[in-house]
Specification:
The protein has 8 helices and 6 strands; from the N terminus they run H-E-E-H-E-H-H-E-H-E-H-E-H-H. It is an alpha+beta fold and 283 residues long. Strands 3-4-6-5 form a 4-stranded antiparallel β-sheet. A two-stranded antiparallel sheet has the order 1-2.
Length: 283
């Protein structure tokens, strides 16, 4: 009886222990498994996000660098090989072409070339000038008028026949004053170029006078002397260069040579003949 009671007690204790231990393990295991799974999922998501962000940043930086380098190289090559070279060639050709026509020397020793060609633009008073100088001439006149001066082109382009007619008239006038023919021709040459040697036949020289109803000649001549170089024009026959040009002082006669040349001639006080020597010596 006692033994049976002991067995019953032992069985009850054993059952209680097993029951308690089993419940506790299973509960902890289940929670641990769930926690492990959740942590794993969170770790996976965080790792994935971190990896994605790092990969995206690295890829973006690398791609940006590669694109920037490639684009820079491509643009640099295009600017260097195409734009810069072509622009330089164009500017060089334009500068050389400018020198050929606007610095051409025409005087008693250098006639107008036989193959010289010209395209003319008509002025409002019927005179004509080389089309290439018209914009600068117009700008100069506009600025002079803004200072209250009234001026006009008395002479522009002349044909060879026109120049001959002017020369003949001047010779006849001196003969009428009692000069011999040789004397008359000599006097005329001081003011009128021999046909074929006149800058007016180039179309890039103009005689500018004042409308005396509004302005006086001296005011216009002084303004031109001080400002014409800014527009590429020079006083072609100044008083202090008569021994070089062979032409008496003509404060009305202006010749287009381009802005760079006009400024240098103004600063150095050179006439065209002197300036061309200066250029050859400083090439």
């Amino acid at each position: 009886m006692i033994n049976r009671k002991k067995q019953v007690v032992f069985l009850m204790v054993a059952t209680f222990i097993l029951s308690f231990s089993g419940c506790g393990f299973n509960s902890d295991t289940s929670n641990n498994e769930e926690t492990t799974i959740e942590m794993a999922e969170e770790f996976t998501e965080e790792s994935t996000e971190a990896t994605t962000e790092n990969t995206t940043e690295e890829t973006t930086e690398k791609t940006t660098e590669e694109i920037t380098e490639a684009t820079t190289e491509e643009v640099t090559e295009e600017v260097t090989e195409e734009n810069t070279v072509d622009s330089t060639e164009d500017n060089t050709e334009e500068t050389e072409e400018d020198d050929k026509w606007c610095l051409i020397l025409v005087n008693q020793y250098n006639p107008v070339p036989d193959d010289y060609e010209i395209k003319l633009t008509d002025l409002s008073n019927g005179k004509q000038v080389d089309s290439r100088i018209y914009p600068k001439l117009q700008a100069m006149f506009d600025d002079a008028r803004s200072y209250g001066m009234d001026l006009f082109v008395r002479e522009g382009y002349r044909t060879r026949e026109d120049q001959q007619s002017i020369m003949d008239s001047r010779v006849e006038a001196y003969e009428a004053e009692g000069c011999t023919e040789d004397e008359a021709i000599a006097y005329a040459k001081q003011y009128v170029a021999v046909p074929g040697t006149s800058e007016h036949e180039l179309g890039i020289s103009v005689d500018i006078n004042a409308n005396n109803d509004v302005s006086d000649d001296d005011t216009v001549y002084n303004w031109l002397d001080e400002n014409a170089y800014k527009y590429g024009f020079i006083k072609r026959y100044p008083e202090n260069k008569i021994d070089i040009t062979g032409i008496n002082n003509e404060p009305w006669h202006y010749r287009y040579v381009g802005e760079k040349a006009a400024q240098e001639m103004k600063e150095l006080d050179l006439c065209l003949e002197e300036y061309l020597v200066y250029l050859s010596e400083n090439e």
